[in-house]
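Appendix B. Chain record.
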Amino acid sequence: MALYINGRPVNPIVTFLVSAVVIAGIIGLGILLLPVIGGLFVIALLIVAGIALYGAYCRWRYGDPFTQMQKQAEEMLRRRARPQEEQPQQQTVQDEPDLKTGTARTGIKRVTVVEDAVVVEEIRHKDL
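Structure tokens predicted for this chain:
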């Protein structure tokens, strides 16, 4: 027997069954997706563990980055605190006459002539 709500016929048994089927479908879909969700969770945990191990390796290999930054900052403060006269004279390195800049991305090409007519070519790439 239909009930009339807002002028429309509504069967409460059909409404209850449709609601029960929708809820059962959502629960069933959640149960079927549990392995997928668990797999994604395990992959995320492995990624986090990999990042942690890489960080431990970098700290072991290169030392504590915060200590290094602190030493660099202290060195910069010491340099600024010294007067200009006390700072060591920095020698400016002038380009050798046999250094030629290439037009392509090859960097700097140097041709060195060694005794006994042996020609050695060296290409030093520019750091990007």
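Further analysis of this model is presented in Appendix C.
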